[in-house]
Amino acid sequence: MANQERSTARRIALQGLYQIDVQGESFISDTLQAFINESTDDPVVRDTAYFMAKAAWGFHAMADEWLNRLTTKWSVSRMAVVDRNILRLAAWELVNYPETPPKVVLDEAINMGKEFSTQDSGQFINGLLDALLREHLAMTGKTLS
After folding, report:
1. At the N or C end, where does the chain have fewer CB atoms within 10 A?
2. Contact by Cβ (8 Å): 105, 90
3. How far is residue 4's CA from residue 7's CA, in Å, rounded to a whole number?
4. How far is CA 97 from the centre of its chain?
5. How far is CA 123 from CA 31, 64, 70, 142, in A?
6. Rounded distance between C-alpha atoms, residue 118 and residue 38, angstroms
7. Where does 59-145 sit in CATH, by number?
């Protein structure tokens, strides 16, 4: 999959996660696939976005627990809906999709924060994901390559 396709899939997956977070888990079975189908004509992007949204939502409780430990000022429930779903998607990808370089995951998350939330969101997202990545690397004994 080309980088641009993966970036597009991430953005669509983020929008799907936002909808699940706001409308509830019934959105997954009721309309997530239809929402994604309306978002792009590219079947590879559709499949990837659907996979990412479902997988990241399946990981969200673990991501929330992890993020709550890393931040002392904001619980995940108090974060802006867009920011917390960017963090969930990036946390899932950092932990479960090692094929994507961490720098790419962080850069994409920061840019989505600036695009879909506020300029300050980029810095907030960067700080949390950097801490999460460092902790994950320490726990797994891996290093950045």
Report:
1. C
2. yes
3. 5
4. 12
5. 32, 19, 15, 25
6. 26
7. 1.10.940.10
Please tell me the pTM assigned to this model.
0.95
- Through-space distance between the first and last CA atoms of the chain, rounded to whole angstroms: 21
User: What phi and psi values does residue 44 have, to the nearest 5 degrees?
Assistant: -70, -45
* Model confidence band, residue 135 (pLDDT cutoffs 50, 70, 90): very high
Closest to 108 (Cα-Cα) out of 133, 134, 126, 127 = 126
What string of DSSP letters covers 5-60? HHHHHHHHHHHHHHHHHHH-THHIIIIIHHHHHHH-S-HHHHHHHHHHHHHHHHTH
Q: Is 114 within 8 Å of 126 (Cβ atoms)? A: no
Q: Does residue 145 carry a pLDDT above 70?
A: no
Among 43, 122, 45, which residue's Cα sits nearest to residue 15?
45
